[in-house]
Amino acid sequence: VQLQACGGGWVQTGRSLRLSCVASGSDFGIHIMGWYRRAPGKQRELVATMTRSGSTTYGDFVKGRFTISRDSAKNTVDLQMNSLRSEDTAVYYCYITGPYWGRGTQVTVSS
Q: Sign of the CA dihedral 76, 56, 61, 38?
């Protein structure tokens, strides 16, 4: 199973960024797809996940700023991040049930 993420980069405080991830090599339905992140000096934490049935879970820090979506037929999961803050700076990892992890994509938020 491989996870390929894209969409990271640098963005100004208050702006938006969209991350996308595609999973390949899985011949069965993926139960949970989502995103985690690791900020410098901190442990990895949940950002958002979505089950195949559409149930979502968000990290407490999200507070309505991020939205996760997925296309189960295409094995893709996206994360729309709005109103970004400097504390959102982290490496974001795509995740699917397994667990399987993507290599991570850097998101840097600054003014």
A: negative
- Within 10 angstroms of residue 17's Cβ, the number of other Cβ atoms is 21
Side by side, the strands of the sheet bearing 17-24 are 2-6, 17-24, 76-81, 66-71
Structure tokens at 97: 């049930």
Residue 28, pLDDT score: 65
Burial grade of 90 (CB within 10 A; 0-12, 13-18, 19 or more): buried
CA 10, CA 51: separation in Å to the nearest integer? 29
**For range 8-12, the mean pLDDT:** 97
Could you give the 3-state DSSP secondary structure of residue 54?
coil
Q: Residue 48: which residues within 8 A CB-CB, separation 6 or more?
A: 34, 35, 56, 57, 58, 59, 62, 66, 67, 68, 79
Question: How confident is the model over 46-97, as pLDDT tens digits?
Answer: 999 999 999 999 999 999 999 999 998 899 999 999 999 999 999 999 999 9
